[in-house]
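Data availability (excerpt). The following record was deposited with the supplementary files.
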Amino acid sequence: MSTTLDGARPTPAVGGPSVPLARVAPGSTSARAHRLALGALLILASLLSPVSTVSGARPDVPTVAGAAPAATNTAATTTVTTNSGSPQLTIGSKRFTESYILAEVARRAASAAGEATVRHEQGLGNTGIVFAALASGAIDVYVEYTGTLAREILRLPDPDDAAALAAGLAAGLKARGLSMSRPLGFNNTYALAMKATVADKLGIARLSDLAARPALRLGLTQEFIGRADGWAGLRRHYALPFGTPRGVDHGIKFTALASNQLDVIDVYSTDAAIERYGLRVLEDDRAYFPRYDAVLLYRADLPARLPRTFAALRALEGRFDDASMRALNARAEVGGESFAQAASAFTIGAGATGQAPVIAAAAAAQRSLYSAVFDADFARLTMEHMVLVFVSLALSIVAGVPLGVWCANSAAARRWVLPAVGLIQTVPSLALLAFLITFYSRIGLVPALTALFLYGLLPIVRNTCAGLEAIPQALRDSGRALGLPRGARLLRIELPLALGSILAGVQTSAVINVGTATIAAFIGAGGYGERIATGLALNDTTVLLAGALPAAALALLVQLGFGTLERWALPAPLRGVRQ
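Predicted structure:
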């Protein structure tokens, strides 16, 4: 059988299939485009050229490119500095309005000290994720609540008095290299609430009254359902006749209650929505919930590392009360202000600006969708989102294409590589991010890129393997007849013929990554997910759409871009033959 490589049709064995090789003139634009598209694949495939041609030979498994080693917190007094050389303070927040606002208040106070560059990592997630970030040194301080510390984090036995509680908290935190401030001045305890009209109709005023109403529909936040001081303990304490309630996000539970989809929800005592929606907070008549005094939880080295900044943060102690905190929350939840704008109403010397002015400002008109989408942070969020998508995509290509080639040439590899990358897709994204935060001992870009890289592997590995396996045996034999070595056959014949399938896998991975990258905002990696998380926290559809619509538009642009790349890079005979 005689075969030429520059556009000739191979002469197949008798009865064999006849599939044309791409007819491309050596100096044509299409040829140059084809070679350009294959450039990255040439480098990747060269890694596999030493592989034996014996069937079933096992090449070395490629390592994950770009994975940074975990940072080790070897010295508690190490000062983190920025590129400009100034020390850096990182403040974290949980994913609800009050936490965002208090973190912004702390950021303003710390920045005013002029000692460090201060950064706010917004909405990192629930208590477990934010506390893990603090313990690992990824953040320096965040606002926590004494009841959460005692029952959920340190799992302390019920104390006899406030002094015993304070001593237990101090000892438990010291053992973890942490400390806490004195209370900020308000108690944001958990409670259950109903629409006041419904509560009056059913004669419910206390938590113990719920036991006589087993038909009520409960909707509780996922964190409250799973907490040690949450639903399970409350149900036992009051002998409530309910199973596990429906889990709902903090930001949407109020509208679900208002629209009569739920009857009972969990609330914070400083929620602005209590008055807005006319809710009745049920009396904790058997004293189940402890006090939840807000405190600054910080790394123990902070006072020595940044003394002026720490003094500025301590000036927040005792400066709030329940009414002023509820008023600040209302500025964001009712008035549509940003968290930074709401925090600006707080004056360190005199607490909040006063309930009457705050509530008056909360009646401000909502922004238009256009202004919300193209707000001042649009360029930054777009750049962050594109970095997340395309850097992780590049890493997935670097690892995925060689793995796909290996699977196509090794039945043993197919048996474990394809199931393994498929299994990764079944891991919930927040669970994977929580694990990666612990693994890297940091939040932000590195764990987010690692998660997106892992999620992007399956389409690329599978399509590369399928594309190579679909190449007719006659074309493989033609390369052997010419005496080409294994690497040359892979580069000159097999990868060009499988390029359409490979590009389809890369395209699928890229589009999936655009959507999945929004989750990265929950660990401080930025992107459009910041707006989505903010919109959920505020139950603000405008802000939520301001993040979702650009992400959807980027996904469409990626889809169109890869379609254009395929038409430009693939020779005409291969465009309609996708494996």
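Summary of structural features: The longest strand covers residues 190-195.
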